[in-house]
Task: structure prediction
Amino acid sequence: MPATLSNSPAPDDLDDDLNDDLVEAPPFDLLLFPVIGRFLMWRHSRTLLQIPLLLVSLVMILHGLFGPSISPKNLATVLTWVHFRGALVLVILVAGNFFCMACPFMLARNLMRRFLHPRFTWPRRLRNKWMAVVLFAFILFTYELFGLWSSPWLTAWIIAGYFIAVLLIDGFFKHATFCKFVCPLGQFNFLASTVSPLEVEVRDHDVCSDCHTKDCIRGRHTSDSDLVVLQRGCELALFLPSKAGNMDCTFCLDCVHACPHDNIGILSRLPASELMIDPRRSGVGYFSRRKDIAALVLVFCFGALMNAFGMVSPVYAVESCLGRLLHIQSQATELGILFTIFLVVEPAILLGGAAWITRAWGGVKRAWLPLLLRYTYALVPLGFGVWLAHYGFHFFTGLYTIVPVTQNALASLGWPIGDPRWTLLGIPKYIAQPIEFGFLLLGLAGSLLIAWRLAEEDAGERRIRAFSPWAVVCLLLFLAAVWLMTQPMDMRATMMAG
Ligand code: SF4
Ligand code: SF4
Result:
């Protein structure tokens, strides 16, 4: 037999090798990708991304305060409520948390910290997500109560207020206190990016085992154009070798620049895979023991439905019905009751019931609360699907509205570029709506897959029983979202506003 043939692997071995290759295939690493990778590896890349967003934020504040008071004609409202939100969820879906990377508030903070060094550490009792949970729910509430989408003035003050809050908190407290413990937008991004396909991750764990300096978290001095500069380590307290997933990661790439072994990349992974496992995560701990993060997930998921519900006409009927039944005159009280039902009562009944059935019928041995916390994370993809469908719809159908609004803003400054074309809107609804349902289906599939994996691990043979209650919860939420998306929606902050 010729040597080449005798040395050839048997067909079965070939299959095994192929499978091994598929399993072991090196992940895609964005930092090794031509042009983009080189740009991201440049130490000033983040600043370069932040500068345009800082300028746009300042323009939005000024236009919101001094420009037209009609929301579809104002850059503050159109950019915030139509373009920014839509672009944010789409970028998180296809890549990762690049909006935190380009965050303009952090540029202002870094400029301030050149002159002012914080002296305090954030109180231990506040080192959790509870404050962010309350702020997240509060923003959703005020959005409805004050109709933020329709007020350029209020929108401008929210953006300005954000800058003030960041400068105050990070002016007094060390590290990335605002990002990790306060910022509701950041928490939204952290949770949403658990379903992203990219993650900042160690390339080779063996290199970390031999690494004695651990600069990725400690930081180190590096030289830049003959100047010795301090390169920060991870301000979010994520130690790369034991970091698991995107929770709390702002994609700032400080760790990448600090690692002396060039051992950190932006690697591809199975989206949402971090929700199927429950390791001890650096800087986060076990998901299944974090009541605060689970509460954040509930506001994220049920708040997505509440936010969409606030835009369809049945909400007005429900509000007036509540008012008549309970003899309430105040809209704030009516909304408060609605929010309590949507964000507290409904999740407590649905998830509490599902956890009870999983124990009683599925035979899972875990205690009720840890079990409930564990499966709560399975809802993240569906919740993100609802945000995607909702924000994506406004983004696509209002995509071109930025053109006449910018033309109008420039004309008011004495720099006209043609007559504003107010008829420009966006992609037609008959194209946007199927995309919307596609996002919902994607979210449902992700949530079912995670619940199935958890049930398999917990219940073995009885996995179908353990899985079923969570599948029912997911289906109910999915159907509620489909119903909401088929209702006529307010086209907030666009010229076709209803
Ligand atoms: S990521 Fe880099 S700095 Fe951090 S432990 Fe690994 S090799 Fe060391
Ligand atoms: S330094 Fe921390 S927050 Fe920044 S990219 Fe690295 S792990 Fe993420």
In short: Residues 31-198+282-486 form one domain. The pocket of iron/sulfur cluster (ligand 1) is lined by residues 202, 207-208, 211, 214-216, 240-241, 259, 261, 263-264 (CB under 6 Å). The chain has 22 helices and four strands. Residues 1-11 have pLDDT under 50 and may be disordered.
